[in-house]
Amino acid sequence: MEDWTRTDMETFLAEKQTGYLYFYTPMCGTCQVASKMLTVIEQLLPDLPSGKADLNFLPEMAGRFEIESVPCLIVLENGEVQEKIYAFQSVPYLFGKLKELKG
Questions:
Q1: 24 closest CA partner among 74, 76, 75, 96
Q2: Dihedral (CA of 35, 33, 36, 44) sign
Q3: C-alpha 34: how far from chain center
C-alpha cells in the first residue's frame, strides 16, 4: 500500500472516489498487524483505490474524519464516508467489508 501525501488524499476526496484510506502511527503495534492485513487485502482487491498515511503528519485529517484512535480504516463510496473501522478483526472480515465497494 502506498503512502499518500496530503495532496494525494485531497485529490482522492475531491474526485469523490470509492476506496479506503488507512491511518496509522509507526509506534503502534496494532497498526503493524493491521498493515500486514491490508497488504493481503490489497492483493485480493488490486483495483480498489487505497492509500495510507501516518496520522502524526496529517493531524487535520484526524479532525476532518473525527478519528478517535489508530489504526483507523476510512471506507469511502463516491467520496462519502461509509464506515470507520478501528477493530480490524481478520482478513476475511476486512475483505467482506471492502469487496462490496468493487460494485
A1: 74
A2: negative
A3: 10
Residue whose entry in the numeric block shows the C-alpha cell 485531497 = 10
- The grid coordinates of residue 27 equal 509506534
Other Cβ atoms within 10 Å of 2 Cβ, number:
9
> Cell triple for residue 26?
509507526
Q: What is the DSSP letter of 4?
A: -
Please, are residues 91 and 37 in contact by the beta-carbon 8 Å criterion?
yes
Helix axis angle, 29-44 relative to 91-99, nearest 10°? 50
Q: Which tens digit of pLDDT belongs to each residue from 16-62?
A: 999 999 999 999 999 999 999 999 999 999 999 999 999 999 999 99
Query: What order do you get walking across the sheet with 80-85 strand by strand?
Result: 50-54, 19-24, 72-77, 80-85
DSSP string, 67-85: --SSSEEEEEETTEEEEEE
